[in-house]
Write a structure and sequence with these properties.
By secondary structure, the protein is mostly helical. The protein has helices at residues 2-34, 50-57, 59-71, 74-90, 96-104, 111-121, 127-133, 146-174, 178-186, 191-202, 204-220, 223-229, 241-250, 255-285; strands at 37-39, 44-46. A hairpin with a 4-residue loop joins strand 1 (37-39) and strand 2. This is Binding-protein-dependent transport system inner membrane protein.
Length: 286
């Protein structure tokens, strides 16, 4: 009877599984196929690994890949801000319930809205230049130099991401047995000692998870910020890999090059996911 019930359940979900798997598998397989071709979407000329060879010798791809590493600066920053926020919420400082909502508010805004906020704020006639004008400073063109542009995007990443991640860290903090803190306080451990010896070691798994998802996010999900704030400029100095995939695949006549770059990015993210699984496996063995 139990085996029959399992069989009925499997048959019931099988059609949905096939449909979902098909919608996921077909785009991936088709992207792999066209990565071996020179195509404009209408004609397909098989060229084997030429698209991949050109990627590894293309200076633009090298520059864009380095740009992604520049944006990795946002990872420790957003984790630090999220950790400080989570600890303050955990300590239940005055008004913590109100700030818990305020901290999470940026996470419910779309990337487009956040991008427009920062693009307008740092525009030539934006609020930042107006504030600088109060001190007699000349307005700045923030988006004509890469350093300012990268700084603004990193600022947007930190502001938009710290609230959600602070809740993840707060969940880890609340899972710690309060008796541990009480025993440490009785033994004379101060606040800083409890933080370094009890709090941080007990949330290392959550910190590791937050670090990995931020690392993967930096390589796969900055398209919206780049598209709205800088459009990859000036030149390619703020272009990321996922935005370059868009430029190659949809803003040129060669979809194959963009597909090849997308496949390389897919494999790279897959490797990061494997590293994530290995890290968590090692932590479970501790």
């Amino acid at each position: 009877m139990m085996r029959q019930s399992k069989l009925i359940g499997t048959l019931a979900v099988l059609p949905s599984f096939i449909i979902v798997a098909g919608f996921m598998a077909f785009p991936i397989l088709f992207a792999v196929y066209i990565s071996f071709t020179k195509t404009n979407g209408l004609t397909f000329d098989w060229i084997w690994f030429e698209n991949y060879k050109s990627l590894f010798t293309d200076p633009v791809v090298h520059e864009v890949f380095l740009n992604n590493f520049k944006f990795l600066i946002s990872v420790p920053l957003v984790i630090f801000v999220a950790l400080v926020s989570a600890i303050l919420l955990f300590e239940q400082f005055k008004g913590w319930k109100f700030f818990r909502v305020i901290f999470f508010l940026p996470s419910v805004l779309s990337v487009v809205v956040i991008g427009l906020i920062f693009r307008n704020a740092f525009g030539y006639y934006g609020s930042v230049n107006q504030f600088l004008g109060l001190f007699g400073m000349e307005p700045k063109q923030f988006f004509i130099t890469s350093n300012y542009s990268i700084f603004i995007i990193i600022l947007a990443l930190v502001w938009s991401g710290f609230g959600y991640q602070s809740l993840l860290l707060l969940a880890g903090l609340t899972s710690i047995n309060p008796a541990v803190f009480e025993a440490a306080a009785i033994d004379g451990a101060g606040w800083w000692r409890r933080l370094w010896s009890i709090t941080l070691p007990n949330i290392r798994r959550v910190l590791g998870f937050v670090f990995i998802i931020n690392f993967i996010y930096t390589f796969s999900s900055l398209f919206g910020f780049i598209f709205v704030i800088t459009a990859g400029g000036p030149l390619y100095e703020t272009t990321t890999i996922d935005y370059l995939v868009y430029l190659r695949a949809f803003s040129s006549s060669n979809l194959g090059s963009g597909a090849a770059l997308a496949v390389v990015l897919f494999l790279f993210i897959g490797l990061l996911t494997m590293v994530q699984g290995r890290v968590f496996k090692l932590q479970r063995e501790d």
